[in-house]
Every structure is written in C-alpha cells, then in structure tokens.
Fold:
Amino acid sequence: MVGLKEELLKSIWHAFTALDLDRSGKVLSHNLCTVLNVPHDPVALEEHFRDDDEGPVSNQGYMPYLNKFILEKVQGNFDKVEFNRMCWTLCAKKNLSKSPLLISDEDAFKVWVIFNFLSEDKYPLIIVPEEIEYLLKKITEAMGAGWQQEQFDHYKIALNTSREGLSAWELIELIGSGQFSKGMDRQTVSMAINEVFNELILDVLKQGYMLKKGHKRKNWMERWFVLKPNIISYYVSEDLKDKKGDIILDGNCCVEALPDKDGKKCLFLIKCLDKTFEISASDKKKKQEWIQAIQSTVSLLRAGSPPPHKEARQKRKELRQKLLLEQEELERQMKELQAANENKQKELEAVRKQLEAAAARAAEEEKKRLQTQVELQDRFSLELEREKMVRQKMEEQVAQKSSELEQYLQRVRELEEMYKQLQEALEDEKQARQDEETVRKLQARLLEEETAKRAELEKWHLQQQQTIQMTEAEKQELENQRMMKEQALQVAMEQLKQLELERKEALEQYEEVKKKLETAANNTKSWKDKVAHHEGLIRLIEPGSKNPHLITNWGPAAFTEAELEQRQRSWKGKKATSE
Structure:
C-alpha cells in the first residue's frame, strides 16, 4: 500500500499544484473520492474547506486531510487509467505547451503517466537523465529504430550543466519535438509510446493474437491475449472493448508445448488448478516467445518478485542512491582535501616567508662573510710572515734539540748497560735469598726433630716417676726398665748432641749465606748510588731486613733468644731431678 500511495500522490500533486485550492479544492477531493471508490464524508469535507481562518486548510494544509480521509481508505479496487486521466484533465490545460507537438494529446497523457512512474520520490517532481535515457531507449526500440547514444550524451551534458532533470511537461515537449525520433511518422511514435505505456503502467508483459480452443464447443477462435504479472486476459480484438475471459496465474501453473494435431500447429498448453487452456500461436517463434514469457511470469509469482520493469526501476533507484551517497562522500572527502590543501597552502606561504627571511639573513651573512674573508686574508698575510720567522727559530731549536737528543740517547745507552749489570746483581741477590730460605727450612726441620725428642724424654720421665710409687717387686722390675730407658736416653742424648752439632753447622751455613747477602746488598747499594747519580731513571730492588731470624719447632721467630735459653735450663733441671 505504501508504493500505491506514492504513485497516487504524484498524480494528485500535479492536479493539486494546478488548482486554486480555495475555489477548487472541494472539486478535487470530490473527484478523488469518486475515481478511487472511496466513500464520501461531506461533513469532514465542509469542515476542512471552511471559509474562516480557523479551518484546517489554513493551519494544517491539504495533505493531512488527503491522507486521513482519502488515501488511507483506498483499497486498490479502482481504475488507474481513469484516476490518472482525471488528474491529467485538471493539470494539463494549465501546464501543457501551446507549441505544436508531433504526438497527440492521448500520447502526451501516456508520457505524463510514465513520467509519474519513473520520476524521483521528491517534490517538485523531476525525471533524472538516467531515467530519460531508459524511456527514450524503450520508445526507440518499440519503433524499431537504432539508439543514438552519442546524440543523447550531448543532450545529457547540456542538461546537467543547467539542472538535475526535467519536469513532466518538459519531458512531453522533448518527446513531442521529435528530437530522438527523426524519420518516424506520428503513428509509429504513437504505437511505440502505447507499447511502453502498456508495459510500464498497465504491467502488460506481452500481447498478441492467438487461437484458443473453447471448453464447451471445442472450436478454435482467434482472441487478443494480454499477459500481465498474475493474469492472462483475452479479448475479441485489440481495442480491449469486448473481454471474453481471464486465465488466473499462480505459482502452481505450468506451460507445456504440444505436438501438432487436428490441423493446428504451434500448440501449447497452460495448466491451472481448475482449468486447462489449449492455445495455437501463429508460428514457432511466437509460440516459443509466449511459452517463455508465461514461464517467466510464473517463476516471478513463485519467488514473490515484482514485475521485471518495476524491479529494474527499483534497482536503478538504489544504484542512483548508492552513487549519490558515494558522490556525497567523495564531495566530503574533496572538501576535507580542499581544507587540508588550504592549510598546506597557508603552511607553504608561511614557509615561503620564512625562506625569504632566511634568504635575506643569508645575504646579509654572506656580505659579512665576504668582509670577514677580506679581513682574514690581510690577517693571514701578517700571520704568514710571522710564521716564517717562527719557523726559522723552530728550525734552529730543532737543530739544538737534535744535538741534545744525541747526548740523551748516549746517556740512555749507558743507563741500559748499567741496567744489565744491575739485573745481574739482582739475580745474585735473588739466589742468596733462595739459599737463605733453604737454610731456614733446614733449621725448622731440626727444631721439630729436637722438640719431638724432648717430648719423648719428658714422657719417659713421667713414666719413671710413676714407677717409683709402685711396690718393691715392681720397683726391681721398673729399675730394670729404667736402666733400659736410661740406656735409651743415653742414645737419645747422643742423638740430641748430634742434632746440636747439625744445628750449629746449619747456623754456620746461615751465617755464610747472610754474609753473601750482605755483600750482595752492598753491591746493590753501590749500584743504587750510581743510578741516583744518573738522574734516578731506574729504581733498585732493596734487600730485606739484616736482623737475624730465629727458627724453632714452633715456627720462625716464635720465641726470643732469652726465652729459648730459659726453656733449655728448665728442661735440664727436670732431667737432673728425674735422675
């Protein structure tokens, strides 16, 4: 119903804009109710068109009344052609061009209705160049002529430069001028317009004469068949005045080709739920065209799709809307790019000014640089003369320094020779220290053995004291053991004496090594004095302390010499007591 309402509004809009509402609004409303088979409401009509300022016409307009009391009550059971003809009658006289046209008023009416079908859904109504091209192509094909695409492209360019599209009356004038139908007579153009009108407005998918077999008499009669999206009507002739019947089509119908029989050729069968129709076409081509057209119509009914021309119109509108959105998006992007470009231009202008300022500064700096360069050249000349004088002095100094260098190298060679002799002295000192370390280790070993012997003797002394306290019987036995131990002690004393001798020999060796070390130290000292005399280029390695070092079984320098003598006297006293 929404699509039907839009189609009705377009025709009503033409009639509404052509009338003086204060005088003829009632007439338009009355005629609309009549042709649309809508019940009249005289009270609402009089209330709406009341002559005072409080009437709905003055504060709400005509559209609310039209929607509420007329369009919402339309059921679709009306003659569309009669409705369009009533609206055409109200608006044609005022708007139709007075200049002579190559088409009749009836053809102009049909073009006006086609315009309402193809125009955009916005007011004031216009038909865009794409739909104009579609309509002119349909008419050209119906006339059997060739389409002049280049001619239309020139017309389209001229049209786009001045406006978005054409009004209904401009479209009628364009087709009536014969600009795109040159060489065609009025009758051919009229037939082409009628064919396009039948297809687009009356939904006629195909029409033509064929023979139909009767259901009762079984005789064959020629009929004019008209195929529409859901019905096939057949008439006595093509003037459509005497209608003989209808073939209701739905998704369950089918079409089958039949073999020739009873002297009839090009037969096909239309099967419906309640009836079957046998039809004979004039030739095989017509037969195939009708079968294909009916099958396509049934397929559309099964799929619930609109007729091809309406579906194509919807697709073209959707495509235009999509292109419009893309164009708007492109325009938006172009505006953004333009704004960005303007910003860039401003930035470039600012950069240009900065470059000009920088160039001015660079020129000033270049001027200063040239001036400075001249000054530097003068200064350089003076410096060059001064440099020559300085170079002569430097050459004299270099000659003097070369002589001093030779003397210095001679002294270095002498120092190197002294350094080699010092290295040999250091090697002698190092060997003496190694001999001293060997003697120290020998003394330590001898002291450890002496300590072990003394510990053993003390142990035996303690065992003798324990033996004295035993019984007489044991005393005799212990006396024997004591004698044996005294003998062992005598042996140990002899060994101790031997160790004392060995220790004295070790001390003598130590004294000899120490003397050698002192001799090496004196040599080192003499070399040190010589090196100090030659500006101290080499630092000598000094020997260690000359004080004597004592080595006991407790380790190096564990006791002083006095403490060692006191311990020796204590040990001898304990030995005498035990004896």
Summary: Residues 57 and 63 are 9 Å apart (CA to CA). Residues 52-59, 536-542 have pLDDT under 50 and may be disordered. The beta strands are 206-213, 220-228, 231-235, 243-248, 254-258, 267-271, 276-280, 551-552, 555-556.
